[in-house]
Structures are given as C-alpha cells and as structure tokens.
Amino acid sequence: MAMEGTGTADDAAVQHHVLRDRSAMHAVAADWRALDARAADPLTYFQSFDWCQRWLDVVADARCRPEIHTLRQGGNLVAVWPLMLSGTAVKRLEPLGWPHSQYANLLIDPTFDGREAARRLLGGLANTKHDVAVMESVPAGSALTALFQDTSPLSGRGNSAAMLDLSVFASPDAYAAALSKTQRRNRNRRRNALSRHGPLSFCVLFPGEDGFADAIATCLDFKRTWLRETGRRSTGFAFAGFDDFLASLPGRRDDLSGACLSVLKAGDRLVAGELGFLHHGHYHAYLGAFDWDLRDASPGKAQMDMTVCWLIDQGVKTYDLLGHPADYKESWSNRTLDLSAYALPVTLAGRAYAGLWTAWLRPGLKQIYERLPHQLRRLARLGQSFALFLMIA
User: Fold this and answer.
1) CATH level 2 (architecture), domain 1-129
2) Which helix (H) or strand (E) holds 204?
C-alpha cells in the first residue's frame, strides 16, 4: 500500500497524505464516503469514492497514476483532492478520471479552515514529480476555486455549464404550464410523431434493475452512431473500457444517488435514453442518445422533457447539462455556472505546456476542427489521430 504523508499521529492540527495505489484508496473508503456526506456538495460527484474507484479499476492504464491528496485533523478525514499523474514528455497532474470527469473539484469538510486546506494541499504538490498541474472546468465558487484564489485563470479557457433550476417548479404540471405556446406545441408534435411507432412509455432504471444493462448498451450504440453520422469525435469514447466503466457505476433508487438511466420507448423499441448521476439533490445529464433513424421526431428532446418531469417529481433541485455551451443547452436552461481553467507550472516544460499548448494551440486547433463541415470531420476519423492528439498531447 503506497501512502506518503507528513505530520504525526498526535498532530491535532493537520496531517497531509498522498494515496498512490488502489489499496491505499480502499483503506480510506469509509472515511471518504463519510466526508462526502458531510460536505454535501452537489458539484463533487466526480470526486466521489465510487466514481474514482471505478474509473481506476476499469479505465485507467499505466499512463495514469493516482495522486490522491488527503488531509486529516485529529484523525478525521477533512479533505480529499483526487488527482492523477499522466503524460510522458510533459508530466501533468490532472483531476482523477479526466477527461471523463466533468468538473474539477475537491471534497472538504465544511467546518475545516479553507485557507489551511489551500496551504497544505498546494504545498503537498511538491511531493509529486510533475511539470505542471492543470485543472480545467473548475466551478465558480467551489472549494477548488478557493485554492487558486492567488492564481489567475488561463485566458481563453473559460467555459460554462448550463443548468435548469427545478426548484422553481412545484410539480411537473407547473413546469409544463411554464412552457411557451411554441414549446408546448413542439412537445406535443414530438410525442405524436413518436407514438406512430408504438405507445410511448418512460421509466428511470438504476444499476442492477431489470433492463438496465441492456438499455445502457443500446444507448452507447446510439451515441456511437450519432458520432459517426455527424463526423464528431469523443475523447471519452476513445478509452478502452469506457462502456464497462459506465455500466459498472453504482446507483441507488432508495436515496436517489449515483447512476441512473432514463429510458423512453415506443412500444418495445427503445428510442432515447440518458445516463445521469444524482448527487446531493443535483442531477448531472452525462450522456444522452437516441435512435438515429427517428431523428426527425426528436426522441432525445422528448426523453429530456420526461426526465425533467421525473426529477421534479422526485424533489431534485437541478438538471445540469454540464459544460461546453450549445444552442440546445441554452434552450433547456435558466441559469449558467462559470467554469475556469488553471495551470500551476513548476518546470520550463510545464510553463511551455501551460502558456502555449493549453492556453492557445490546443483550443485553437479544437475550434478549427469543430467548425469543419461534418463531411470533412468524418474524413478526419481516419485513424482517430487528430482527436487522440488533442486528448493526450
């Protein structure tokens, strides 16, 4: 078990430890989960033990070494910052699970001094041999933002997450009543068009329930068809084991936590689905997919509408469409959350990576690729080289 730390067992102030393998991580699993419950931060699902543990077990390869920074006070776990060391030419500290993790953040006990956490955690980075620490998609106002209060965010790397605040709707009927006439007309049109293929039915499945495994496999096939037909490339799908990872994530209906899958069917035919994550009353819409052959009927929008109604009925407060603005996200949201990127270089190679590649070249090349007509993007699929280059360089 690889665990490195500073401080003594009787140090009532703070002890810093770095967990560098799965056994060290499992040794603190109960404390990690208890800290998550105390923090009750809705934007830390991607720092939860279940997400990090499954990602390491199923997706991570030899290029990704866990570097999980923890703080204890009086023996109690008060902070967890899940990082990993990756890269070859340039060694990077990144959020554990990147690029699959959508928000960079850390877990911290709400009673613990944030300034002390920043001092200890940032100071602890010196124990890791790396060129640069890169944190993208850091939510505004988050615990991780507080760590970087003396660091300017990377220029040109700002982002935002679109969210629908569900707390303003007393019921699904109140949500429907708030739609404009055009929105209600389009809603009915979509449902009528899909109903021609069979009676519509909607449900939300949790891991282990009948039909979950088959439904998530179908949705992943749908997504790959959409990527192929539109000439898009997903860095997440390029990882071996990505399907198995998503299918392995736990979720519980009794306390509305973890993974769940919205399923819309027309008769016996699955026409759209959405894998989401529930965390402290917050829902992350992680992966949506639909039957490409029915695209003219917009089954994905019909499924999203039904998912929103289900979430309102369950008392969930937020439908989170995650980062990277898009027209369809704007149409579904009523507020946004700013996301920032930070880099802390420690070597000349790290400074070059942060100042040239991360802040300028990579986003520029990505914009060029995304603006290509989809026919040209489909040509770029040959060998997957361009997208993989953007991901791992």
Assistant:
1) 3-Layer(aba) Sandwich (3.40)
2) strand 200-205
